[in-house]
Amino acid sequence: MNDCPRVPTIHQASTRPRAPLWAKLTATFFGAGLMHPGPGTWGSAATVMLWWVVSRWTPVWAQPATAAMLAALAVAIGIPAATYMSRATGLKDPQFVVIDEVAGQLIAFIAVPVSWKSLLLGFILFRGFDIVKPWPVRWLERLPEGTGIVIDDVGAGLYALAVMQMVLRLGWLAG
C-alpha cells in the first residue's frame, strides 16, 4: 500500500465548507502559522514578541489581567476559528492553525514579570509542554474540533505557568 497522504479530489474538496476570512486570519495568527518549519513555534514566537510590545504599553500592575484577558480572547475566538479551518481542510488539527499556541503562550506569562529571561523561559517551557503533552494535555486533544485543537494548548500553557511560578518563587529569574 502507498504511504503518501491521500490528496482529495476536486469534488471532495468542493463539498467541504469554506472557512471565512476572519477564521483564516485568526487561526493562522495573521499568517504566522504559514511559516515553516514548525508553524507552532512561529506562532509562539510571534506571541512572545506581541506580549513584549503590549507589556511596554501596559502598567505593571495591569499586566497579569491583560495577559489573562488576551489568553481568554484567543480561546474564545480561536475555538470557532479552528473549527472552521478543521472542517474546511478535513484535518483534525491542521498545523497552520496556531491560535492555540497564542492562547497557551499567553497563559504561560500570566503574573510573570516581563524580562528577556522570563520571555525565553516561558517560550521554552510552553513549547516543551506543547510538544510532550503530559497527562491530561494529550487527552484534551480528543475533544471535538476547535475545542480539542485549542484546549490542549491551554493545558500546556497551564503547565508552563505552574513551572514559571515555581521558578519565580525560588528566585531563579532574579536579575
Supply the key terms.
175 residues, mainly alpha, 8 helices, globular
Query: What proportion of the residues is helical, as a percent range?
Result: 55-70%
Total discrete domains: 1
Question: From the helix content, strand content and strand pairing, which structural class follows?
Answer: mainly alpha
Q: Compute the separation of the termini in Å.
A: 58 Å
Q: So how many helices?
A: 8
| Average predicted local confidence, pLDDT | 91
- Taking Cα atoms only, what radius of gyration do you get, to the nearest Å? 17 Å
Total E-strand runs = 0
| Strand proportion | under 5%
What ranges have pLDDT less than 50 throughout 5 or more consecutive residues?
none
Q: H/E element string?
A: HHHHHHHH
* Basic shape: globular
Largest sheet: none
